[in-house]
Design goal:
The chain is mainly α. It folds into two domains: about 90 residues, Endonuclease Iii, domain 2; about 100 residues, Hypothetical protein, domain 2 (Endonuclease III, domain 1, Orthogonal Bundle). It is built from twelve helices and no strands. The longest helix is centred in the middle third of the chain and has 16 residues.
């Protein structure tokens, strides 16, 4: 298969498997989504979803969170790792939202990426899932599978994002981002598939030898 043919096949398969993929992080609005995505850095969505109910009982809006101490926030989110940096970022970005954005999460790339702890991937998730702006956030699952399926060379996350945006129509980016993540978790995990077991891997590269351990 040529790259464009592999992309078309992947698109069809994922659309059939996950016609309406839900956002895996529990949230109620753009602010709680932003906080949840920030916490998910180097942490599982499952862990984040265990932590955020207690965090949002403490404060679920920028005005309330800006009044909290980093120590109190860190005590709740510590199990998500990168302590106390994540707590500092949550309190810090909440204060900036209150002081500079009238307590609202801005639907603006530059403004989002200027917030503490918010990089391009986090901003991409928020723009896509909170505001419906076309984006293609690349996490570890997407980076790994894009290389395995021959959709990108895997040299960098930035390269993977550019390649995927070229291969798939913009109208599919937001949904496809979630569909690939779900497929990577449920059918083609790093340990569960060696490049020869799941249906998409077998179809894209039917003669591939098992990956070396």
């Amino acid at each position: 298969m040529k790259r464009i043919e592999r992309a078309s096949y992947v698109d069809r398969q994922l659309q059939e498997l996950y016609p309406a993929p839900p956002i895996p992080l529990y949230h109620r609005d753009p602010y709680t989504l932003l906080v949840a995505v920030l916490l998910s850095a180097q942490c599982t969505d499952e862990r984040v979803n265990q932590v955020t109910p207690a965090l949002f009982r403490l404060a679920d809006n920028p005005q309330s969170m800006a009044q909290q101490s980093v120590t109190d926030v860190d005590a709740i989110v510590r199990s998500c790792g990168l302590t106390p940096r994540k707590a500092e970022s949550i309190v810090g970005l909440s204060r900036i939202l209150v002081e500079q954005h009238e307590g609202n999460v801005p639907a603006d790339w530059a403004a989002l990426e200027a917030l503490p702890g918010v990089g391009h991937k986090t901003a991409s998730v928020v723009m896509a899932q909170a505001f419906g702006v076309p984006a293609f956030p690349v996490d570890t699952h997407i980076h790994r599978l894009a290389a395995r399926w021959g959709l990108s060379n895997g040299h960098s996350v930035e390269r993977t994002e550019r390649d995927l945006k070229r291969l798939f129509p913009q109208s599919r980016w937001n949904e496809l981002h979630l569909q690939i993540i779900y497929y990577g978790r449920q059918h083609c995990s790093a340990r569960g598939c060696d490049g020869t077991k799941c249906e998409i891997c077998r179809t894209c590269y039917p003669n591939r030898k098992p990956l070396k351990k």
